[in-house]
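Duplicate of earlier report; Neutral ceramidase input re-posted below.
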Amino acid sequence: MCQSLMSSNSNYNAYLHRKAGAAQVDVTPDTPQFLFGYPHCERTSTSVHDPLLASAIYLSDGQSGTLFVAVDVIFLTKEQVAEARGEISQQTGMPAEHIMITATHTHSGPITMSMLSNSEDRVVPKPDPTYLRKLINGIVDAGTQAFKYAQPAEVGLVVSEVHGLGTNRHNPAGPSIPELPVLVARSTQDQSLIGLMCICSMHPTVLHEDSTCISGDFPSLARQYLQSQEGLNDLVVVYHMGAAGNQSPRHVTRSNTLEEATRLGTILAVCVAFCVTLVKWASVVCK
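Output:
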């Protein structure tokens, strides 16, 4: 279920940016990888169900800009983020502190942190350095392309609620965060959509340790649904996981299958698509 709480307009919570750009880069591993998300469990990928992406959106008011990048992996270290931010900054001239990089936290992607390989969990190997290089390169490419593709744009924001993705992990009636902010950018030249960004506070853990498919779980499948819809074809979708430490789909899922991940992804995607239709674009034209 999707319920609109607030839509942007020219007087209330509406923001006009002179430019916006978006891009996505495939960061799916080229070789089988140890899938991390469930400790003490030997789990090596045998197939790819849906591609892992680095997705980016750049927003500028004409004086300064901010870049948001979201990556379909479980974790990123401070060092990895600093490296990617530094390379993007060097290539674009953007201050590194204007670049935010997040992980969608899929539990069906490659291990990315050495600290997870420790004496208490001997089945977890060190990350594959070749894949880590591809991952960082993909983040940098997505960020620099979003900056490069920036064009005159306007931005709208809708805050909605999405229900049916999950609940509080330990108590289904406990605290949860159903709010779903959706920010959309479109061209002022032809009104075509450039990209969107959303925040959803739910663990992407429909798929469990018995799955050996590489997947971004329900957020990735929501993106695939959106990109298949008329008017949203190939739209860059930047998905950030919100405050989801104690939020889980375990009390709403019927199984831990790809079909169930698709069902939850569709719930999310339908709500996001509805939000796009509610945006009230600012009327000021960028010069």
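Helices lie at 78-92, 129-148, 217-227, 258-278.

Merging into the original ticket.
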